[in-house]
């Protein structure tokens, strides 16, 4: 059974930083692209960043230069380092993988950027 468990969300002031983590299990982690997706209040889910094995990461324009996605295949984990946070980054952040034509999501971790 595929499981994705996010952690690391919370309340942070504008300009601050957070690091999100996603622990994955139930599939061959190193073989698949891992992504972070977010859903702001009242809006649709939007892709934030994707990291494929052996390739450069890709980012949404809104976060490029502030967010960094990374992965540790030995730990079956993917991370999202978020710097220079803005109020518009407030959202629930989800870990996502498409494995063997099936889509999987974690339960999400809430990030609130507010003073």
Describe the structure concisely for a colleague.
It is built from no helices and 11 strands. By secondary structure, it is an all-beta fold.
Notes on the structure:
With 115 residues, the chain is mostly beta strands. The protein is 0% helix and 53% strand. The chain has no helices and eleven strands. The strands form two sheets. Strands 2, 4, 5, 6, 9, 10 and 11 form a seven-stranded mixed β-sheet that branches. Strands 1-3-8-7 form a four-stranded antiparallel β-sheet, with no helix packed on it. It is globular, with a radius of gyration of 13 Å. The N and C termini lie far apart (40 Å).
Distance between the termini: 40 Å
User: How much strand?
Assistant: over 45%
Question: What is the succession of H and E elements?
Answer: EEEEEEEEEEE
Count of helical stretches? 0
Question: Would you spell out the secondary-structure blueprint of this structure?
Answer:
Layout: E1 3-7, E2 10-12, E3 18-25, E4 34-39, E5 45-51, E6 58-59, E7 67-72, E8 77-82, E9 91-99, E10 102-105, E11 109-113
Parallel strand pairs: 2-11
Antiparallel strand pairs: 1-3, 3-8, 4-5, 4-9, 5-6, 7-8, 9-10, 9-11
Name a few traits of the molecule.
seven-stranded mixed β-sheet; about 55% strand; four-stranded antiparallel β-sheet; about 120 residues; 11 strands
